[in-house]
């Protein structure tokens, strides 16, 4: 597996790699070496081969530009060359579109090439950088991270790779409709959570964020323009009129520009006393925060990026036995409505978000039913990684024949 990220920190890559190892496959993850990490180690049966030294965001930016222009990332190209000298590699599993060009250069050295698309990357480029202020970064992204150019790369490598893994059904449908990719080479392996993740909610970890007197509306995750956090912040001005004790807790971080923008929106909406920027919290505490929140939200904007991916935290919240409120992004809406597992508001609609919070505040029996439905969907109805990972295993079993 080739990944431009820290391993084992990348949840999707880790779950895939460990599941294959648990089923008798030998997996080598090739990733960058950051400061103060081992160059080689084995974690839960997965062998890790880290390339380079002290890989930084600045270095990544330089290599991203090179990749954009020449379809090759020299850092990963030479790293892979060293891997192929040392190991016998049968299958090269490339994580996400930016490394597709580099991985394809090794097509003659392996039996099959697999491209794992974590998201709709070209469309993501339209939203990720909307709130950036640095003129140099804006210019760099406009020239080198142009969505149209990356859309052409997406088509090119989806046609060239032997198998394409999509993260949701919507992404598979998009590739078939837009690029006429043969459905037989497409497989959906979604970001489901393991059933035993529920154990994180069964401990007695204390959390110091939410006080018992608050009606807590909690967002957990990264901050970005596409996350819809601004919708929740603006809605608080309406919500507190009917629920004075309501408070929005934002657990996580974003870039300096993103956090500055969200704080500006908070001030402009006059809800500084009702919005709490909590920053990063230890994971055990995050699980306790999820469990003890009155509402957990996933307020994503609805666009061609968010409509073609799905966050791990959807399934984590479903296991937490807390109330779930999601936007009308297609994958979120599809799963929540299919299992009657929570509430859905119209994406980017401040008024509808506020209305749904008031509905939840005034509900009782319906809440319990939806909470139980969400929990059962993961544990009893196969909306879990234990079942989803079988698709990945089947893919490699078939490639080995």
Concise summary:
The protein has 401 residues and is α/β, with parallel strands linked by helices. It is built from 16 helices and 13 strands. The chain is globular.
Structural topology:
Layout (H helix, E strand, L loop, with lengths): L10 H12 L5 E5 L7 E4 L2 E6 L5 H14 L3 H13 L4 E5 L4 H5 L7 E6 L3 H8 L6 H10 L2 H14 L2 E4 L2 H11 L6 E3 L26 E6 L8 H14 L3 E6 L4 H13 L6 E5 L3 H10 L2 E4 L13 H8 L3 E5 L2 H9 L4 E3 L4 H12 L3 H15 L5 H16 L1
Parallel strand pairs: 1-3, 4-5, 5-6, 6-7, 8-9, 8-11, 9-10, 11-12, 12-13
Antiparallel strand pairs: 2-3
Helix pairs in contact: 1-16, 5-7, 9-14, 12-15
Report on the architecture of this protein.
- By secondary structure, the chain is an alpha/beta fold.
- It folds into two domains: 11-192 and 385-400, Rossmann fold (3-Layer(aba) Sandwich); 195-379, Rossmann fold, CATH 3.40.50.2000.
- It is 46% helix and 15% strand.
- The chain contains 16 helices and 13 strands.
- The protein has helices spanning 11-22, 57-70, 74-86, 100-104, 121-128, 135-144, 147-160, 169-179, 229-242, 256-268, 283-292, 312-319, 330-338, 350-361, 365-379, 385-400; strands spanning 28-32, 40-43, 46-51, 91-95, 112-117, 163-166, 186-188, 215-220, 246-251, 275-279, 295-298, 323-327, 343-345.
- Strands 10-9-8-11-12-13 form a six-stranded parallel beta sheet, sandwiched between helices. Strands 4-5-6-7 form a four-stranded parallel beta sheet. The protein has a three-stranded mixed beta sheet with strand order 1-3-2.
- Helix 13 links the parallel strand 12 and strand 13.
- Helix 1 (11-22) packs across helix 16, helix 9 (229-242) crosses helix 14 and helix 12 (312-319) crosses helix 15.
- The model has no long low-confidence stretch (mean pLDDT 94).
């Amino acid at each position: 597996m080739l990944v431009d990220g820290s391993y084992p920190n990348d949840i999707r890559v880790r779950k895939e790699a460990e599941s294959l190892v648990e089923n008798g496959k030998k997996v080598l993850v090739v990733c960058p070496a950051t400061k103060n990490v081992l160059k080689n180690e084995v974690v839960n049966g997965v062998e890790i081969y880290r390339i380079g030294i002290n890989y930084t965001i600045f270095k990544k930016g330089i290599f991203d530009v090179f990749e954009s222009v020449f379809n090759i990332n020299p850092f990963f190209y030479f790293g892979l060359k060293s891997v192929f000298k040392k190991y016998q590699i049968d299958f090269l599993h490339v994580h996400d579109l930016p490394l597709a060009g580099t991985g394809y250069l090794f097509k003659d050295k392996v039996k099959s090439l697999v491209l794992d698309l974590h998201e709709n990357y070209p469309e993501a480029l339209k939203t990720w950088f909307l709130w950036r202020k640095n003129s140099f970064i804006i210019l760099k992204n406009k020239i080198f991270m142009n969505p149209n150019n990356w859309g052409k790369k997406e088509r090119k490598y989806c046609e060239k790779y032997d198998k394409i893994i999509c993260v949701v059904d919507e992404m598979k449908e998009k590739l078939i409709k837009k690029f006429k990719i043969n459905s037989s080479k497409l497989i959906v392996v979604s970001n489901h959570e393991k059933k035993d993740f529920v154990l994180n909610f069964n401990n007695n970890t204390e959390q110091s964020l939410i006080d018992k007197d608050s009606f807590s509306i909690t967002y957990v995750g990264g901050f970005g323009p596409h996350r819809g956090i601004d919708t929740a912040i603006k809605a608080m001005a309406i919500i507190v009129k009917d629920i004075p004790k309501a408070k929005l807790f934002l657990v996580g971080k974003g870039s300096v520009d993103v956090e500055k923008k969200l704080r500006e929106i908070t001030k402009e909406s006059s809800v500084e006393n009702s919005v709490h920027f909590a920053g990063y919290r230890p994971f055990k505490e995050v699980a306790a925060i999820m469990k003890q929140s009155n509402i957990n939200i996933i307020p994503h904007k609805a666009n061609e990026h968010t409509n073609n991916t799905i966050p791990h935290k959807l399934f984590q919240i479903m296991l937490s036995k807390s109330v779930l409120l999601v936007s009308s992004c297609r994958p979120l809406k599809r799963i929540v409505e299919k299992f009657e597992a929570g509430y859905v508001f119209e994406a980017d609609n401040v008024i509808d978000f506020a209305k749904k919070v008031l509905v939840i505040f005034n509900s009782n029996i319906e809440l319990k039913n939806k909470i139980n439905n969400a929990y059962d969907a993961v544990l009893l109805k196969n909306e879990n990684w234990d079942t989803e990972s079988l698709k990945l295993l089947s893919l490699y079993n078939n490639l080995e024949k």
